[in-house]
Design a protein that fits this description.
Distance between the termini: 68 Å
CATH superfamily of the largest domain: ANL, N-terminal domain
Number of strands: 25
Number of domains: 3
Structural class: alpha/beta
Largest sheet: 7 strands, mixed
CATH class of the largest domain: Alpha Beta
Number of helices: 16
Bound molecules: adenosine-5'-diphosphate
CATH topology of the largest domain: Rossmann fold
Length: 537
């Protein structure tokens, strides 16, 4: 017997309309190229409807694609809704990928229209010779700032908006229909597309934004540091209208002084981003003696946040870190650490160090190399698998790349241990683990230990071949400005923190480590550096 509830489809257009109706006056503050715009959910919705109707009039509809190559502004936010609202799919191309990979993702998807902004114009011009299908470039800028460019088929975004109908009614599409397409950042080979449905996207935003996740409400103001092109901007474009939180969109700029100024002047409460950004803000506050206004929590994801950073934010500024694990393939967060306010600082930090528990709607397990379950005892490492309502079941147009087990779990390529209460401890990416004499050494745990030395700014561990042990760890360190570190000093420091057999066989110091397009350490590049002798063992 079926229940008698109405069949209310979970669509992104309803998220926007919910925001417009309930939180219509809540601000969306946008800083684009030479332009600061204060808008609201009512205005964003009216303009998204105009955009949707104008795009629909060109014949775009279900199964159609358009692309964006843009930073976080109000226009990019409108585009998310305008395109998906009419049942079409938005491919958010990542301007931080190497140009050949950006072109690959656009050509692979194959569409006519690419939305760009003034900060990606030069990039789009340089990509033009390698774009196979794009014939029209819509520049997301006010008319007064429209540039002279050799790009073909140029259209001002504001003309599209003007041509549209603000009273346009969104069509009801299948909630399982594709809405957004995001490619992996290619750190593990050719970028592969994760194709997100309306349903998966809405459920992920509902669950990750709720109590044991981001804990969002209409009292929040979110600084949208993660690019909208990376895992749907960690769901921030949906969090705003869904929870009535103010959105602060910093455009292309990500320098510390600017972010700090926005935090204070816009009353930001919630600060998401990779740790590098928040380390910078912390350093800025320490140097200038400034505070952080209403900021009360950080969201760190994509990589393990340094403990010293979480400690400093908590003890010196009362800012908690909510630490999550996720992948492009899991839309955004899958698990999140939650430290209840009754915990003392030390206990809270211990909780924040973990990757936390799965949010309702997705599940985790660990297995051995044969697929047999590994005990949830908090110690035994296993291959992490995940399944759930916003977990990808395959890659876009790549049936040749399978990552799903016969019983429906996605293989993540990560190694983890899980506590009896289901708390996740991510140990490493499988390929970053150092396999010494048949035992695993976690490169992440070694890096974390190295980072506890106050003179260390950044640390990376990669495996080097060894005749007896097969692999041994090699630690590469960037020292804090003005600090001179020695191999001996690092050894002594690590000896107090990790088992003896984990101690790196070699330690080197460099000025800078390589980073990928999302700000994470690019260990594949570092491994090449080591092979090429650019970093000496
Ligand atoms: P890419 O795979 O291209 O780097 P993703 O954003 O999809 O881009 O990266 C997902 C991977 O990042 C995970 O499989 C995991 O290895 C790592 N990761 C994500 N969150 C965390 C975290 N909280 N702690 C440690 N590693 C993490």
């Amino acid at each position: 017997m079926l229940g008698l509830n109405q069949d209310f489809p979970l669509l992104l257009s309803s998220v926007l309309e919910h925001g417009a109706l309930n939180y219509g006056a809540v601000a969306v503050v946008s800083h684009g190229h030479d332009e600061a715009v204060r808008s609201s959910y009512a205005e964003v919705a009216a303009r998204a409807r105009r955009l949707g109707s104008a795009l629909a009039a060109t014949g775009l509809g279900p199964d159609g694609f358009v692309g964006s190559l843009a930073w976080n502004t109000h226009r990019h936010l409108e585009l998310f809704y305008g395109v998906t609202g009419i049942g079409a799919v938005l491919h958010t191309a990542n301007p931080r990928l190497p140009p050949a990979q950006i072109a690959y993702t656009i050509n692979f998807t194959g569409y006519r229209t690419l939305f760009i902004d003034l900060d990606t114009l030069a990039l789009a011009e340089s990509l033009l010779p390698s774009l196979e299908t794009v014939e029209q470039f819509v520049i997301m800028a006010p008319r007064a700032l429209m540039p002279a460019t050799a790009l073909p088929g140029v259209l001002c975004y504001e003309d599209l908006i003007d041509a549209g109908d603000p009273g346009f009614a969104w069509p009801v599409v299948d909630e399982r229909a594709a809405a957004l397409l995001c490619f992996t950042s290619g750190t593990t080979g050719v970028p592969k597309g994760a194709l997100y449905s309306h349903r998966g996207t809405v459920l992920s935003a509902l669950s990750t934004g709720g109590g044991n996740g981001w804990g969002l409400s209409a009292d929040d103001a979110i600084l949208a540091v993660p690019g909208f092109f990376h895992c749907n901007g960690w769901a921030i474009p949906f969090f705003g209208p869904m929870y009535g939180a103010k959105l602060v969109l910093p455009g292309r700029r990500a320098d510390t002084e600017w972010l700090h100024a926005l935090i204070v002047t816009e009353g930001v409460t919630a600060g998401p981003g990779v740790p590098t950004i928040w380390l910078g803000v912390l350093e800025h506050c320490r140097q200038t003696g400034q505070r952080l206004g209403r900021l009360n929590r950080l969201y760190s994801g994509g990589t393990a946040p340094p403990i010293a950073m979480m400690e400093a934010y908590l003890r010196d500024y009362g800012v908690r870190t909510i630490h999550g694990w996720g992948m492009t393939e899991t839309t955004s967060g899958s698990t999140m650490s939650f430290a209840p306010s009754c915990l003392g600082d030390d206990e809270a930090i211990a909780a924040m160090r973990t990757q936390g528990k799965p949010l309702f709607g997705n599940e985790i397990r660990i297995v051995d190399e044969r697929g047999a379950p590994v005990p949830r005892d908090g110690k035994t490492p296993g291959l992490l698998q995940v399944r759930g309502a916003w977990v990808s079941g395959g890659y876009f147009r790549r049936p040749d790349v399978a990552f799903q087990t016969a019983d429906g779990w996605m293989e993540t390529g990560d190694i983890a241990a899980i506590d009896p209460d289901n708390t996740l401890h991510l140990l490493d990416r499988a390929k970053d683990m150092v396999k010494s004499g048949g035992e695993w050494i976690s490169s992440q745990a070694l890096e974390e230990a190295a980072l506890r030395h106050p003179g260390v700014m950044e640390a990376a561990v990669v495996a080097i071949p060894h005749p007896k042990w097969q692999e041994r760890p090699f630690l590469v360190v960037v020292a804090q400005a003005g600090v001179v570190l020695t191999v001996e000093e690092m050894r002594l420091h690590l000896a107090g923190l990790v088992p003896k057999w984990w101690l790196p066989d070699a330690i080197a110091f460099v000025e800078e480590l390589p980073h990928g397009p999302t700000g994470k350490l690019a260990k594949n590049v570092l491994r090449d550096w080591v092979k090429e002798g650019r970093v000496g063992v």
